[in-house]
Amino acid sequence: MMAQIDGHTIxxxxxxxxxxxxxxPTMHNNAFAKLGLNYAYLAFEVGNDxxxxxxxxxxxxxxxxSNISMPNKQKVIxxxxxxxxxxxxxxxxxxxxNDDGKLTGYTTxxxxxxxxxxxxxxxxxxxxxxxxxxxxxxTPIAIQAALDGVKEIALFNRDDSQWAQxxxxxxxxxxxxxxxxxxxxxxxxxxxxxxxxxxxxxxDATGCGMKPLEDVAVVNDPSWFHQDMIVFDTVYAPRExxxxxxxxxxxxxxxxxxxxxxxxxxxxxxxLWTGKDMPVAYIRQLLF
Length: 288
Ligand code: NAD
What we know:
Bound molecules: nicotinamide-adenine-dinucleotide
Structural class: alpha/beta
Radius of gyration: 19 Å
Strand order of the largest sheet: 2-1-3-5-6-4
Number of strands: 12
Mean pLDDT: 96
Helix content: 25-40%
Low-confidence stretches: none
Distance between the termini: 16 Å
């Protein structure tokens, strides 16, 4: 079902490269049509080299906004007029809203993560989280969880190019929020095991479990998890990762993939552009 495009249709973009695989155009256009909103969402193959002109086009064409994905999430910041708090602390933007030529950058991935949990009736405010990964997914998850009232975050990262970002995330959280964050080397398995045992939620934001790492999981022993905790894998293709199978063996009650987060990050952007709630249940049923 697609809405009729006419002279009043409002354009929203997605600027990234590569981008042709993205599900966002299908998700948003079906949601606009379902609600009878006269918007159209199109993907544009834009890398760092043409980004400045593409952002200027948002103003010139009076577009309502855009999603921003790799490799533009940080590079876009100098071309915007202001950032919301979460985008500022993440130093990354995935959504732009154009209010009469004034462009505001947001990051909705962390909002999507938190909302996907409340959709399941789960509240992690005041609780302890163990999180692995500090990249495009791990950073907004950590920052939003801290902003929303998670009490403690034990952040683990391996000794790779993302370690500096992990250090930055921990520093930002401790300086800017009431959450207490600590940083640990993923290679220290004893610390990882102890942190998980003391946590209410374990989040994997590493990409382990999806191609080409479908046979890899950061935690391989089901006994490391306890029954009442949440195990959350940001991967959504495949729907069930090795980590999720291990957690289920360990009789963990609440085991999730990243599909709810993906849908809810889109829903948060949809709300910012249109002021309306995305029909998430309808989109989930339609696309997945
Ligand atoms: P990224 O490359 O920016 O960061 C990857 C992180 O994982 C880094 O911290 C890195 O140190 C760590 N890492 C990579 N390989 C590892 C390994 N073999 N063992 C341990 N740690 C490893 O990637 P990203 O953009 O953060 O994406 C990570 C995952 O999150 C991907 O699976 C992606 O599909 C998923 N994701 C999901 C959503 C969603 O809405 N559900 C949104 C964004 C990303």
